[in-house]
Design goal:
single chain; 232 residues; mainly alpha; 10 helices; 84% helix
Length: 232
Amino acid sequence: MTMRAQLEQRESALTDQSLEKLCRIAGASMMLAAVLYVWAFAAQYLLPAPSSNAAADTLQFVADYSSFFVLSYALFSAANALSIVGALGVYVVTRAVDKSYAALGALTLVVGLAGSLFSNTAPALISLAEGYASAATESEKQVYATAAAAAGAMNDPLAASTVIGVGVLFVSLALLKRPAWRSLAYLGFVAGVLNIVRGLPVVANYSLVTLVFVALSSLWIFGVGRLVYRRA
């Protein structure tokens, strides 16, 4: 064996080891993210409904249940960050069956998750709610309410959710190419569609849709994470 062949063999072995470590980290990250998503939604949706959608009422509601909102935001942020890491492992595993769907799936997942992570207005609302609760006069409260209304107008969770849903569909199309992965693919198709439509006004008011979405999405994320981990 020539020196060049030996170097190429060593580089290939190092690359395989690096990809194996990446898949283990990515798979574990996705499985943990699935658990965190369940707890994040539980912290958010077990709360009573606010009295109205007015900015002042929203701030008072956030102030009254600030610990739940802080916990939910922390869990969502951690889960989204872990899912971004997981998307890298998803690409490594699924590119073996379809490079196009694998690349499109990983890219759209990362874009959607990053968008959801950095466009979240929860920190602003929590901070404004603290100021609103401690305001001494109605004029001061109105200032905070106006700022909250502006922050709410900038928030568009449907956009990020749609991109994530499209990413799930692309990954599922790649999973469909291998018979052993088809159950995850079919589950992903349902979870991806729910991710796209759940923010629409005609669907958002049904709590059952949210429960089904959380259950199916968490199962899919955990299942894909387990697949990525075991492929390492």
